[in-house]
């Protein structure tokens, strides 16, 4: 595997190495003295015709600049002009960051129009390092899906975006009503989905309307975030208040009854413009290709930023979400094969009910001590409740291949999560050629989960000829099957130094120590379990720039997860431990407009529990599972207006030993080979400027449907297409998803819960910005 991987890397890199670049590229960001992004600032190289204008995040790019020394001039209405010397090198992207002072005369408000969706290729991220860093310098695989890509894909659910990330597949979780993914073969649930750097537990689909970008960091993330799943971490960055005023309205609809109006507002308050705001709101009413699966959703997300001074800024944001959608556990597999029933068939009842609400508040206080050091204090509060009253399937009737048992369930769920982070940031140099970007922090979090479930047997249903609502619900026969409360507290202490030596060698060193405290009260069984774990997790990564845009990297990191329970001897379990070894190549093409990352990884998870052969009521930690493979990611702008996302992943994820599952059994829902491709082209000039079109495909191989590989989800290739038009304040887009009406399956929780994929879907969005 290692030899094949190296040959593949050489094969991929060779043509690009032969493609010598005679020009360079200048990219950067312009901010005010308060640190706010400045859109609409003109930048140009004196003595040339080369120039650009900053976008809504203050970023600019000047392409195809011949190598040499220049003077960059930045000008904008209401700001003093600034000139700065820059040197452009062959085949390299030169970064530049500037701050402009306000001019003495009064500034009348300047209207900024046009597309504010930003770049297709995001070159910077914060997830892997806890500070803003160019992704091409980070010695780890990180993939970012930008707001512009989200818009072109017409993403309503986060899972629609995650299908375009290498090594990631969608899994159906909690009855297909929340976000669950597989990353590099490992299930990624609430522990590894974050929002603005904080863990974000939720038992419903996270809203996409206020998402600015999604970062996926591959591999264990415990060094900065504590408990984490082995495959990776997903961090959702939300839209922020703006220093300019704008309003955006849009309406989205599809052929299954979706009606989704949305609003996005931003601007400032007062003459000083110290107070900025942002507001996102959505109402959604949706049908489904699945019987009885209608939903309603309300979502509002206000946020503000206040500048106390040029050195001190406070940001506060909140979310309110109400979501009404019954759970859907899909269809059955019978005798090792998926039942041949319509993909629309539901095995629940028409009057099934489920209501979820979530409340979220987060604040971030940043204070700049001096040019070297900054302090950050942030906190996150999140709580959600869910009420479910429904009929759902359980098992096949004994000796039958078509009759299933169903039960009636009355469930109440409550969760509350609080966390605070306190961090010290530093930027300094030692010697002439060594630059440091350091972060040290302390984090405390508390998570409470309260669950009460009552159940009763209901009826028997024929999956090939169902008769619904045949008898009244057995409300008077309900018996409590689960009633418990879990409380976990975590204390984390971490430090990291991102070192750059002579502008070519980047070294990432970090470590975190965690104290994890768990207490569970089982009100039904009248017993209490208490457990405390300690874990130290280091990380080291190295990236070296071989030549211009070509770099090689490698990293080693560890992670942990808690394992709750006791052995036959009464001892508590040790944490599940994870190690990852990763190496690869990063390459920037066409003056860094197009980025290519290839990587090889091997992840080993140890201390996996299995049934104790001495007493099956207890477990022993004897298991080990391994996932290894390779990934290729290509993202960016091939030519002006031609954007592309292409990924490939090979994942060899198998059980090494766990005491019960046969050695070599492949991981559930994990396809060995996955391909995705998405590309769009937008006309850049002429009477039809702003008209665009494109499409792509997702190709997945056959994969196990359950942990024992007792049945298979068949492979498939799904084709999507789009056409869109943007002119001044108006935009319109139409996407056709599953153009060929492929019959496929998204994933499975077990042989009794298999989720069919959606048939051909036409989704359209019309919007206006002013």
UniProtKB/TrEMBL annotation:
<dbReference type="InterPro" id="IPR012910">
    <property type="entry name" value="Plug_dom"/>
</dbReference>
<keyword id="KW-0732">Signal</keyword>
<keyword id="KW-0675">Receptor</keyword>
<dbReference type="Pfam" id="PF00593">
    <property type="entry name" value="TonB_dep_Rec_b-barrel"/>
</dbReference>
<dbReference type="GO" id="GO:0015344">
    <property type="term" value="F:siderophore uptake transmembrane transporter activity"/>
</dbReference>
<keyword id="KW-0813">Transport</keyword>
<dbReference type="InterPro" id="IPR039426">
    <property type="entry name" value="TonB-dep_rcpt-like"/>
</dbReference>
<keyword id="KW-0406">Ion transport</keyword>
<keyword id="KW-0472">Membrane</keyword>
<feature type="domain" description="TonB-dependent receptor plug">
    <location>
        <begin position="135"/>
        <end position="232"/>
    </location>
</feature>
<protein>
    <submittedName>
        <fullName>Ferrichrome-iron receptor</fullName>
    </submittedName>
</protein>
<keyword id="KW-0410">Iron transport</keyword>
<dbReference type="InterPro" id="IPR037066">
    <property type="entry name" value="Plug_dom_sf"/>
</dbReference>
<keyword id="KW-0798">TonB box</keyword>
<keyword id="KW-0408">Iron</keyword>
<dbReference type="GO" id="GO:0030246">
    <property type="term" value="F:carbohydrate binding"/>
</dbReference>
<keyword id="KW-1134">Transmembrane beta strand</keyword>
<dbReference type="InterPro" id="IPR010105">
    <property type="entry name" value="TonB_sidphr_rcpt"/>
</dbReference>
<dbReference type="Pfam" id="PF13715">
    <property type="entry name" value="CarbopepD_reg_2"/>
</dbReference>
<comment type="similarity">
    <text>Belongs to the TonB-dependent receptor family.</text>
</comment>
<dbReference type="Pfam" id="PF07715">
    <property type="entry name" value="Plug"/>
</dbReference>
<dbReference type="GO" id="GO:0015891">
    <property type="term" value="P:siderophore transport"/>
</dbReference>
<dbReference type="InterPro" id="IPR036942">
    <property type="entry name" value="Beta-barrel_TonB_sf"/>
</dbReference>
<dbReference type="InterPro" id="IPR013784">
    <property type="entry name" value="Carb-bd-like_fold"/>
</dbReference>
<dbReference type="InterPro" id="IPR000531">
    <property type="entry name" value="Beta-barrel_TonB"/>
</dbReference>
<dbReference type="GO" id="GO:0038023">
    <property type="term" value="F:signaling receptor activity"/>
</dbReference>
<feature type="domain" description="TonB-dependent receptor-like beta-barrel">
    <location>
        <begin position="307"/>
        <end position="739"/>
    </location>
</feature>
<keyword id="KW-0998">Cell outer membrane</keyword>
<keyword id="KW-0812">Transmembrane</keyword>
<dbReference type="GO" id="GO:0009279">
    <property type="term" value="C:cell outer membrane"/>
</dbReference>
């Amino acid at each position: 595997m290692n030899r094949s991987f190296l040959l593949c890397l050489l094969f991929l890199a060779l043509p690009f190495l032969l493609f010598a670049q005679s020009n360079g590229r200048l990219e950067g960001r312009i901010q005010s003295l308060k640190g706010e992004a400045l859109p609409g600032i003109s930048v140009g190289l004196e003595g040339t015709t080369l120039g650009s204008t900053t976008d809504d995040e203050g970023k600019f790019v000047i392409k195809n600049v011949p190598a040499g020394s220049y003077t960059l001039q930045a000008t904008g209405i209401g700001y003093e002009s600034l000139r700065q010397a820059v040197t452009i090198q062959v085949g390299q992207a030169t970064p530049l960051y500037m701050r402009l002072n306000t001019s003495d005369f009064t500034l009348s408000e300047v209207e900024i129009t046009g597309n504010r969706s930003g770049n297709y290729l995001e070159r910077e991220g914060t997830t892997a390092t806890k500070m803003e860093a160019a992704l091409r310098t980070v010695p780890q695989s990180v993939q970012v899906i930008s707001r512009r890509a989200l818009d072109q894909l017409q993403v309503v659910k986060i899972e629609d975006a995650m299908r375009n990330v290498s090594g990631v597949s969608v899994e159906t979780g909690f009855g297909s009503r929340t976000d669950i993914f597989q990353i590099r073969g490992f299930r990624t649930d609430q522990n590894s989905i974050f929002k603005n750097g904080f863990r974000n537990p939720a038992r419903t689909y996270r809203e996409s309307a206020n998402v600015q970008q999604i970062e996926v960091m591959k591999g264990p993330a415990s060094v900065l975030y504590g408990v984490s799943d082995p495959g990776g971490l997903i961090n959702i960055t939300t839209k922020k208040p703006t220093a300019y005023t704008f309003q955006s309205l849009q309406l989205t609809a599809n052929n299954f009854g979706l009606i989704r109006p949305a609003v996005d507002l931003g601007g400032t308050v007062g003459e000083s413009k110290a107070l900025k705001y942002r507001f996102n709101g959505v109402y959604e009413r949706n049908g489904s290709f699945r019987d009885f699966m209608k939903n309603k959703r309300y979502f509002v997300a206000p946020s503000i930023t206040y500048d106390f001074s040029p050195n001190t800024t406070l940001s506060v944001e909140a979310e309110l979400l109400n979501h009404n959608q019954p759970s859907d556990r899909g269809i059955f597999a019978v005798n090792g094969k998926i039942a041949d029933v319509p993909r629309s068939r539901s095995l629940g009842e028409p009057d099934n009910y489920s209501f979820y609400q979530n409340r979220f508040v987060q604040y971030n206080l940043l204070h700049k001590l001096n040019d070297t050091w900054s302090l950050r204090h942030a906190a996150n509060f999140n709580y959600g409740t869910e009420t479910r009253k429904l009929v759902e399937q359980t098992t096949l009737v004994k000796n039958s291949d078509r009759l299933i048992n169903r039960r009636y369930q009355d469930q109440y769920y409550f969760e509350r999560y609080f966390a605070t982070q306190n961090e010290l940031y530093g930027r300094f140099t030692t010697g002439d050629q060594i630059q440091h970007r350091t972060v040290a922090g302390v984090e405390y979090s508390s998570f409470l989960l309260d669950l009460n479930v009552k159940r009763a047997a209901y009826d028997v249903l024929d999956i090939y000829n169902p008769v619904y609502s045949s008898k009244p619900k057995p409300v008077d026969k309900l018996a409590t099957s689960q009633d418990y409360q879990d409380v976990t507290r975590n204390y984390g202490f971490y430090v990291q130094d991102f070192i750059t030596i002579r502008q070519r060698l980047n070294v990432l060193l970090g470590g975190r120590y965690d104290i994890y405290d768990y207490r569970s009260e089982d009100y039904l069984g009248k017993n209490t379990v208490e457990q405390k774990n300690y874990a130290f997790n280091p990380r080291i990564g190295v990236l070296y720039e071989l030549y211009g845009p070509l770099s090689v990297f490698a990293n080693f990191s560890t992670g942990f997860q808690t394992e709750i329970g006791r052995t036959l001897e009464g001892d508590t379990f040790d944490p599940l431990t994870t190690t990852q070894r990763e190496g690869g190549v990063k390459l920037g093409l066409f003056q860094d407009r197009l980025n290519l990352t290839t990587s090889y990884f091997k992840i080993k998870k140890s201390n996996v529990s299995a049934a104790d052969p001495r007493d099956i009521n207890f477990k022993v930690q004897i298991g080990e599972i391994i996932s290894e493979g390779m990934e290729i990611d290509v993202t960016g702008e091939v030519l002006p207006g031609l954007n592309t996302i292409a990924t490939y992943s090979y994942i060899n994820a198998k059980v090494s030993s766990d005491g019960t599952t046969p050695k070599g059994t492949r991981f559930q829902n994990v396809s060995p080979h996955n391909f995705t491709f998405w590309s769009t082209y937008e006309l850049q000039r002429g009477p039809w400027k702003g008209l665009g079109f494109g499409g792509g495909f997702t190709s997945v191989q056959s994969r196990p449907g359950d942990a024992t590989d007792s049945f298979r989800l068949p492979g498939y290739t799904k084709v999507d297409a789009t056409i869109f038009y943007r002119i001044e304040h108006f935009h319109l887009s139409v996407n056709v998803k599953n153009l060929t009406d492929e019959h496929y399956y998204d994933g499975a929780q077990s042989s009794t819960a298999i989720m069919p994929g959606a048939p051909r879907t036409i989704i359209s969005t019309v919007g206006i910005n002013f």
